[in-house]
Amino acid sequence: MFKGFGSIFYKEVIQISRDPLTLLLMLVVPMIQLMIFGYAINTNVRDVRTAVYNLDPGPLSRELIDAFQNTDYFLVTESVGSDDELNQAIVAGRVKVGIKIPPDYSDRLSMGRQATVLVLIDGSDSNIATQSMTVSNSVGLNKSLERLIQQQGSEPRPLIEIRPKMLFNPDGRSANFMVPGLVAIILQMITTLLTAFAIVRERERGTLEQLLVTPIRPFGLMLGKLVPYGLIGCFEACTVLTVMRVIFDVPINGSVILLLLLSILFLFTALSIGLLISTKAQNQVQAFQLAFLIMLPSVLLSGFMFPQASMPVVLRTIGYVIPATHFIEIIRGIVLRGATLMDLIFEVATLAGMGVLLLALSALRFHKKIA
After folding, report:
1. Confidence of residue 283 (pLDDT cuts 50, 70, 90)
2. What 8-state DSSP symbol labels residue 169?
3. Which of 173, 254, 363, 371 would bridge 218 by S-S if both were Cys, CB 3.0 to 4.6 A apart?
4. Which pLDDT score is estimated for 335?
């Protein structure tokens, strides 16, 4: 029954040892991923970027701002001078929370009257939005209790009222938050896998040598490989965006044309990743493993499922070099917040730079292979 087992076992061990890249991916990468994602998966949000519009010059307003920051949940990153600037900071995605303190805040508390503080919350991220509402209400309650304790023996003064206002997703629908991010992840997975096999398939079929004797330049070859898959990706993008709007009823508050144009930019970057993988892998199995190595960080470190604000700085930095991170910000900004091109200029420039760099690296790697 077991005749030949030893010989076949020995043969497979020798064959695996001759493929060090596959062996590395099988043994080392899972441990690295476990360590990274063990720290990355954290739903307890910290340091949420916050803008403050303080119209009150009194010390009580500054005490309130300090109370927000002392929670370690809110991180005040900018001060604004008008309602428009406060709204624009949230629409552009620079901050997730905006705090507006009225000009009579200190005076009303001093006179024993109720003081109201407006807290604007970006509802495009449901996890951050829910926690922001809870923590801001807790800050108002704690400050009110402090004032009541200080006024023991006298007439209690009115409580500080925190009025949170949810923007862009007031109903808190999870589909409005999850589906746009899911569109970005699906597009990156599909397009990366499509092109990851491009050069590898030529090598396995023996047609790569035929390309080498032609006068085709490396950059022309890379671009020629990319464009057909890019057309497929454009069709896929239109399909998933239609499903998002029609089936899941996610409203698109911004420009549909802008969304489609920036989707093409993202597809170009994702396709370039696949091409770079195809120049490194020796066979389709390696190509799939390398593509999978990028897929998991794209899901966990891009802000699709877990807020980046809760991640360590190192992992947050890794997340910034993942194209899906920037496209998730783009698609959520256009779909939910109605962001414009200027609001998203940093993400757009980053994606464009990534795409050009990855395509150039792919051409250089292929040129070295044939040199």
Report:
1. confident
2. -
3. 363
4. 92
Quick one: tokens of 264?
């093409």
Interatomic CA distance for residues 192 and 364, integer angstroms: 19
- CA torsion 319-323-324-327 (nearest 10°) is 120
338-354: pLDDT as tens digits: 999 999 999 999 999 99
Answer for the pair 49, 94: CB distance below 8 angstroms, yes or no: yes
Q: Are residues 150 and 232 in the same domain?
A: no
Q: Which of 128, 145, 167 is the last residue of a domain?
A: 167
How far apart are the C-alpha atoms of 53 and 248, rounded to whole Å? 36
Q: What is the pTM of this model?
A: 0.81
> What is the number of other CB atoms lying within 10 angstroms of the CB of residue 360?
15
The answer to whether the CB of 200 falls within 8 A of the CB of 283 is: yes
Per the domain annotation, does 11 fall within a domain?
A: no
Non-local (6+) Cβ contacts of 91 within 8 A are 333, 337, 338, 339, 343
Among candidate residues 167, 188, 203, the one where a domain is terminated: 167
Tally of domains in the chain: 2
- Taking Cα atoms as reference points, which of 66, 70, 90, 69 lies closest to residue 80? 90
For residue 264, which of 207, 205, 331, 177 has the smallest C-alpha distance? 331
Token code pair at residue 180: 């746009």
**Contact call for residues 270 and 308 (beta carbons, < 8 A):** no
Q: Which long-range contacts (CB under 8 A, 24 or more apart) does 99-102 make?
A: 99/50, 99/51, 99/52, 99/53, 99/54, 99/65, 99/68, 99/74, 99/136, 100/53, 100/55, 101/52, 101/53, 101/54, 101/55, 101/56, 101/61, 101/64, 101/65, 102/55, 102/56
* Measured distance CA(250)–CA(176) in Å, rounded: 5
Give tens-digit pLDDT for 80-130. 999 999 999 999 889 999 999 999 998 888 877 788 999 999 988 777 888
Residue span of the structural domain in which 190 resides: 173-370
Q: What are the CA-CA distances from residue 225 to residues 26, 82, 195, 298 (Å)?
A: 29, 50, 8, 24
CA distance 126 to 336: 12
Contact 158, 201 (CB under 8 A): no
- Pairing mode of beta strands 115-122, 97-101: antiparallel
Q: Are residues 210 and 72 in the same domain?
A: no
| Helix (H) or strand (E) run with residue 49 in it | strand 48-54
